[in-house]
Amino acid sequence: MRVLFVTSEVQPLAKTGGLADVSGALPIALARRGIDVRLLMPAYPGALAQLKNPKIETTLPVIAGVEGGALISGTLPGTGIPVWLVDAPALFLRNGGLYQDEAGCEWPDNAQRFAFLSHVAVHAAQGKICGWNADIVHANDWHAGLVPLLLSMQGRPRPSSVFTIHNLAYQGNFPREVLAQIGVPEHYFSTDGLEFYGQVSFLKAAIRYADHITTVSPTYARETLTPEFGCGLDGLLRQRYGDYSGILNGIDDALWNPATDPHLARNFSPQDLSGKRPCKAALQKDMGLEIAREAPLVGFVSRFAHQKMADVVLEAIRALVEAGAQFVAVGEGDAALEAGFVEAAHRYPGRVGAKIGYSEPLAHRLQAGADLLLAPARFEPCGLTQLYAARYGTLSVVRRTGGLADTIADTTTDAPEGRMAAGFAFEEPSLSALLKALDRALALFGKPLAWRRLQLQAMSQDFSWNASATDYIALYRMLSGKPRLIAAAPSSDSGDQARQAAS
Ligand code: ADP
Ligand code: GLC
After folding, report:
1. Which of 22, 300, 322, 345 could form a Cys-Cys staple with 354, CB 3.0–4.6 A?
2. Does 266 map to a domain?
């Protein structure tokens, strides 16, 4: 089984969030189970610099009007996973962020940049570039959203498409005028195509034309079928219900292993938790806090965004300090929130620390050193920080939504069931609900034996990719045999209708 995994971010080559974690870990789990998987992503400067054994595989013909492109092959650092970087210097070789310039403004040519990624993916998957052809193209998030549409335009036999929604709120919507620049025929601009409230939507194109759609937790899959969480696409998702499923993300349990993590002041494990205390002292020192063993240390490592309730977390700091806790925030995002966390650190010296910016080592040190992790969210497709926290014996306070609801059980109200870590959960996205959950957490922190039992329960949960990689493989197998099923029952397959409409 050959799978081309198309994504904009892969840990450690390029990362702004959890998409990179998933893209850097799921392919490894697939390869271990015998899948011939290749990654395809843009040749950002950081990715070019870190790719192992890079070589120019081939120069690219003019694709979607872009000249001078090349495919650079290599491997993902620390693994044998083959990676293809789509090198188009005019599109990807620039200073600034993956999606934004140094001032935080979206790159004006994002539609062309990521349309090109999708076109190259479809060429590569069909063996038109390197003689390797895929059975499945697994495309992720709006950046690769044109892949399913472009594949649907190809004659059979062709690879099947799986599209994973990591976050329905990021849709890749652009003015109609970009149609001329992204290599998609004009007639696709209809409500039954990729038109979305007068714009071109890469995400809608993906949902409309993918052979199968997944998202990253079962609860988020259900939530996205409702107007409250559907971001305007719930109607289309309901139409595609039979081809839509939720598969819970896993974590890379080698990269996130407190027993071997090179970033930690001391390693520790469920068998010997003693190293967690020096990790706490190190975090307190790093963040300018008093070295106080008995003070509960509450951490927040996150994008500072509305989604993550970062505004509510900021409001909770005062109550936390008054309750005798310490608080550290590591993150970046909304400028007012960044300023707010820095201001809180000044207001409560020795009790509150804030680091604005992105630091992978600090994220690991926070997970190891904190007693509690705040992971509230207005919505959360999966969330990974609560899974890392569990592995590091740090209990999470979460809002019961999306993947948070699927992975964290409230230790005071829920009977632990299935693969869920002990933590604290609340329902309403409000300050008072968050504070009530925090109260319960702080009360339990005062009972060391009970706390230790919960830590060990959390650490013993298997959040690796084992189960979910198997689910993806089952899906790939089902889809690669799908043409026969479609021939038997064409009317029940909306993906096939879409392809017929497109041809
Ligand atoms: P999302 O992808 O919505 O931001 P996830 O919980 O799925 O949320 O993934 C976030 C990832 O980004 C985790 O690996 C987390 O450790 C990391 N992260 C978030 N902010 C920072 C930061 N400031 N520094 C380092 N890592 C961060
Ligand atoms: C998105 C979501 C997050 C998820 C991650 C990886 O960024 O916001 O919930 O964990 O993708 O799938």
Report:
1. 345
2. no
pTM, rounded to two decimals:
0.94
Structure tokens at 255: 């990269």
In a shared domain, residues 80 and 145: yes
Quick check: is 197 in a domain? Answer: yes
The alpha carbon of 17 and the centre of ligand 1 are apart by a number of angstroms equal to 5
Helix locations, 240-295, DSSP H = 276-286
Which domain CATH number covers 62? 3.40.50.2000
Type of residue at 11: Q
- Report the number of distinct structural domains present in the chain: 2
Residues 230 and 368 in one domain: no
6 and 76 together in one domain: yes
Please compute the mean of the pLDDT values over residues 173-188 and round it to a whole number: 96
Find the residues whose C-beta lies inside 6 A of ligand 1.
Answer: 17-18, 21, 301-303, 330-332, 358-360, 363, 382-385
pLDDT in tens, 371-397: 999 999 999 999 999 999 999 999 999
58 lies in the same domain as 207? yes
CA–centroid distance, residue 388 to ligand 2 (Å): 14
**Which residues face 136 on adjacent strands?**
3, 160
CA of 385 to the centre of ligand 1 (A): 7
Separation of alpha carbons 388 and 403, rounded Å: 13
259 in a domain, yes or no? Answer: no
Confirm or reject: Cβ of 216 under 6 Å from ligand 2.
Answer: yes
Mutation to probe ligand 1, out of 256, 303, 362, 463 (largest number of atoms < 8 A from CB): 303
CA distance 226 to 248: 19
Residue 166 beta carbon below 6 angstroms from any ligand 2 atom: yes
Ligand 2: which of 215, 249, 387, 408 to mutate, most ligand atoms within 8 Å of CB?
A: 249
Going by alpha carbons, the residue nearest to atom 24 of ligand 1 is 358
Residue burial 19-58, b: 16+ Cβ < 10 Å; e: rest? bbbbbbbbbbbbbeeebebbbbbbbbeebbebbeebeebe
pLDDT in tens, 116-138: 999 999 999 999 988 899 999 99
The tens digit of pLDDT for each residue in 395-453 reads 999 999 999 999 999 998 777 677 899 999 999 999 999 999 999 999 999 999 999 99
Cα of 64 to ligand 2 centre, how many Å? Answer: 30
Probe residue for ligand 1, chosen from 287, 302, 309, 358 as the CB with the greatest number of ligand atoms within 8 Å: 302
Distance 307 CA to ligand 1 centre (A): 13
What pLDDT was estimated at residue 186? Answer: 96
Residue span of the structural domain in which 296 resides: 273-460
